[in-house]
TrEMBL record:
Keywords: Collagen. Pfam families: VWA. The lineage of its organism: Eukaryota, Metazoa, Chordata, Craniata, Vertebrata. Residues 12-157, 218-408, 553-747 form the VWFA domain. This is Collagen alpha-5(VI) chain. Residues 817-836 have a biased composition (Basic and acidic residues).
Length: 845
């Protein structure tokens, strides 16, 4: 029977222990005791009874990792026992509480109990003053947007945390100082406003925020209402703008210097048939209305949707040149909210120059990008830092719009308090050149970009017809970046002298997918040129393929069931950590369209059954959590654990597609799922696995399957993997280090092939003799079995090793579509006859 205690509502509760450089064993044990005393007084959720707290315990330094997950215990007694077994570990990094807060928001709270009454609370312990206010503000914005209530229990200075949390008038964002030494009991406010908060009595914790006169702002909403927005979506945008008005203290006398003022702008769209520029329409200006209710009434009754193309640059130009300068008594802060949903057909250089002019004049530009259209200009349009001023949504639906409204609350407060500088210091030189009339649109010098940082330059690495050339030098671990307009003429010839090391020549390979008008084609000289001058011809011609098509979104779905032994699981972790080196991780995975993004999920949690509330997977991190390989490796090394449940691969795959990929902004063209499987799926899951894998492949996902262990169903594996099977399915009879090393090398050429759009397709490997080509044509391989006595695994192993060798050394030539057309038809017909038609039929889904 459920008994109502503290917490009043079902609560997802996360504790985060500071284990950074400043954490001593004595201090760490004190934090653990503090948590134990809190849990001892809380009602802990048991047996899915929807009352009490479900607790997770983590530790953090620069990153975060799990100590206790909610499924590691079944009752309060077991939870307290698990807590008593936590031991202090030697610190390895400095503290970054902001980054740890974002990890908790994006991962641990990703899958929680649904329902409007469920509360989400995170309690962080801190041993030192936070190093970065910006990092904490970013985390605070995400916490506010996701309705997560934080409390920070600190042993040191609290000034930055207090500043970041001051926006909250509910009193549920708390900083609790405690003495560095001696005992401490949680205050009544911590219990009442964090653990036992009752939403029916909010005034108990509420606090008043007093605004100073120099904190008022003029806010212009620049609203796109073009043909790209459906009627229902446009109604949602109107509701969004109406809700956003609640974040402002609207002036009752707009002609005086007191209070915030709001203007709403739309524009007659660009007429693409007549090449006529649009005209901005002032729906209402800064002095038209004295309260938000009149503004909301206008938005709902008078704001009409237009049609045509978007002209954001022209609209922004009119806003900063006409609207603001002609308004009396301008406020200290000038803010422009751009709500955008469609492609922008203005010249990119024009939009860049207008945005720079606005920023140099002190305007704050916040961009809300709806839909999948905008990819380049929104990052250049928004103010810095982008984490604060750019919100991108893949599609419009109510939860996302609520996210925006809640996200903006701390943002508006940070603008009032001047936490960010407008313009930022990094624009000082460009602003100076603009004010003095110098030409600031100059040709930049070629740059070196460290691979470890995965740095991508936003303006020059653009996805248009002016794409740059990026060369990878494995000898220096650097990317040499050359903007397109420096590469003239369009053919670049590089000559190597006799004294140059041939290995160094082979290592210099392009990481950009060069294209011909017909299709992809590249040719690298072989060993026959060794010892004399060697030419490598890279003919670049801007094609229709954008730079973004080179990158990929990747999800690793790891079997962590009871069938995986402890030693085997450690080997799988080592394998996964090694494979991450093949990806160029996006430095800004949430907003940028450049770079690879990686998610990792483990499946087979204990007690999971279909149609239950539990999740079939455990999300380690999603596509937008981490911005470097180092962060991912650190997480996997410290947090990836066995789950020891039964195998439901189909349900895990379905959850991955629906929750990791769908709804994530800026999805890459290449969507890859690596399934690491240790055994046959549960009989209750077989039909789901068959249908979900077919659906995923029909929706453009590539599924690679790596299986190990003796209990696999070969037909099941073949139905799961993408075609052709010999490129997407590898089966191991058992795990040992050489086999995993083999798989690591196996993956490298196929990641390359995906980037080059060669899978599925026809390609030819040319060598000095044609033995390999003959060997490939002599038989059809459907899957690889290592350590078994069937399917001619020796021949297959030789083939893959040769394939890996050819890719790594550059001895590869791909065929054009026209050249390979007849062979492709023959190969496809043969495969359909033997394996059934691999292509998708809508009737079969």
């Amino acid at each position: 029977m459920c008994v109502e205690k503290c917490p009043v509502y079902p609560t997802e509760l996360v504790f985060a222990l500071d284990q950074s450089y400043d954490s001593t064993e004595q201090r760490f044990n004190r934090m653990v005791d503090f948590i134990s005393s809190i849990i001892d007084r809380l009602n802990i959720m048991e047996n899915n009874c929807p009352v009490g707290a479900r607790v997770t315990v983590t530790a953090y330094d620069s990153y975060a990792w799990y100590l206790i997950r909610w499924f590691d215990y079944r009752n309060k007694k077991q939870l307290l026992q698990q807590l008593s077994q936590i031991k202090h570990q030697p610190p390895r990094a400095a503290q970054d509480i902001g980054n740890a807060m974002r990890f908790v928001a994006r991962n641990i709270f990703k899958r929680t109990h649904a329902g409007p009454s469920v509360r989400r609370v995170a309690v962080f312990f801190s041993n030192r003053q936070a190093a970065s206010l910006s990092s904490i503000i970013t985390a605070t914005m995400e916490f506010s947007a996701l309705d997560i209530r934080p409390a920070v229990i600190t042993f040191s200075e609290r000034a930055l945390l207090d500043e970041a949390f001051e926006f909250d008038n509910t009193g549920t964002f708390q900083v609790i100082p405690i003495p560095p030494y001696g005992g401490y009991e949680p205050t009544e406010r911590l219990w009442r406003c964090t653990f036992c908060y009752d939403k029916c009595f909010p005034n108990v914790c509420a606090k008043e925020i007093v605004l100073s006169e120099d904190s008022y702002m003029d806010i212009a909403f620049l609203l796109e209402n073009s043909q790209y927005i459906a009627n229902d979506e446009y109604k949602a945008i109107k509701a969004l703008v109406s809700s956003m008005l609640d974040n402002f203290d609207i002036s009752s006398a707009p002609l005086t210097s007191s209070g915030d003022r709001v203007a709403l702008l739309s524009y007659s769209p660009w007429d693409s048939s007549r090449r006529r520029k649009g005209k901005v329409k002032t729906e209402f200006d800064f002095t038209a209305y004295k309260n938000r209710f009149l503004m909301k009434n206008y938005i709902q009754t008078h704001l009409q949707q237009l049609s045509g193309e978007a002209t954001i640059g022209q609209s922004l130009k009119w806003t900063i040149e006409d609207l603001f300068p002609k308004t009396p008594k301008l406020r200290t802060h000038k803010v422009i909210f751009v709500v955008s949903a469609g492609e922008n057909y203005e010249r990119r250089a024009f939009l860049q120059s207008i945005a720079l002019r606005a920023k140099c004049q002190g305007f704050v530009i916040v961009v809300i990008s709806l839909g999948s259209a905008h990819k380049d200009h929104v990052e250049e349009l928004a103010s810095d830092p982008l984490d604060h001023h750019l919100i991108r949504l893949g599609r419009i639906h109510k939860p996302d719009l609520d996210y925006i409204v809640k996200f903006l609350k701390p943002l508006v407060y940070s603008i009032r308090r001047g936490f960010n500088q407008y313009p930022p210091q990094k624009l000082n030189n460009e602003c100076r050149r603009m004010h003095t009339g110098e030409d600031y649109l100059f040709t930049p010098e070629p740059r070196e970009i460290a691979l470890e940082e995965n740095s991508f330059t936003g303006q020059e690495l653009s996805a248009g017809r002016v794409s740059p050339l990026v060369l990878e030098d494995s000898g220096s671990d650097h990317l040499v970046y050359i903007p397109y307009h420096v590469m003239m003429p369009q053919e670049l010839m590089t000559k190597y002298e006799e004294v140059q090391d041939s290995e160094e020549i082979a290592s210099l390979t392009s990481v950009y997918p060069f294209t011909k008008k017909s299709d992809l084609s590249y040719s690298v000289a072989g060993d026959e040129n060794h010892g004399r001058k060697e030419e490598v011809g890279l003919t670049y011609q801007p094609g229709d393929a954008a730079l973004q098509e080179y990158y990929m979104d990747v999800a690793f779905l790891i079997d962590a069931s009871h069938r995986v032994g402890n030693d085997d699981f450690q080997e799988v972790k080592a394998f996964l950590i090694s494979v991450l080196d093949y990806f160029h991780i996006a430095p800004d995975p949430l907003t940028s369209t450049l770079g690879d993004r990686v998610a990792v999920l483990s499946y087979s949690p204990p007690g999971y059954m279909p149609n239950a509330e539990e999740c079939p997977v455990y999300l380690e991190f999603d596509l937008v959590t981490y911005s470097s390989v180092h962060q991912m490796k650190h997480h996997l090394q410290n947090s990836l654990l066995k789950l020891n449940g039964d195998v439901f691969t189909g349900h895990a795959l379905q959850w991955t597609v629906d929750n990791v990929f769908v709804g994530t902004p800026n999805l890459r063209k290449n969507k890859i799922i690596f399934v690491v499987s240790a055994g046959e799926t549960n009989p209750l899951d077989k039909e789901v696995l068959r249908n979900v894998s077919l659906r995923a492949k029909c929706e453009g996902y590539s599924i690679f399957v790596f299986s190990f262990g003796p209990t696999h169903n070969e037909k099941e594996l073949e139905e799961l993997a993408s075609y052709p099977l010999d490129q997407h399915l590898v089966q191991l009879g058992r795990i040992h280090k050489p086999d995993l090393n083999y798989i690591i090398k196996f993956i490298k050429p196929f990641v390359h092939l995906i980037r080059r759009n060669l899978i599925p397709g026809v390609y030819e490997i040319e060598t000095e003799n044609s033995e390999l080509s003959d060997e490939v044509g002599s038989q059809e391989q459907h899957f690889f079995a290592l350590g078994n006595n069937y399917n001619d695994s020796g021949t297959t192993a030789d083939l893959i090793q040769m394939l890996y060798s050819l890719f790594s050394s550059g001895k590869l030539r791909t065929k054009d579509k026209e050249e390979a057309h007849s062979e492709e038809i023959t190969a496809n017909d043969k495969q359909r006859d033997e394996k059934g038609n691999p292509w998708c039929s809508l009737q079969s889904i």
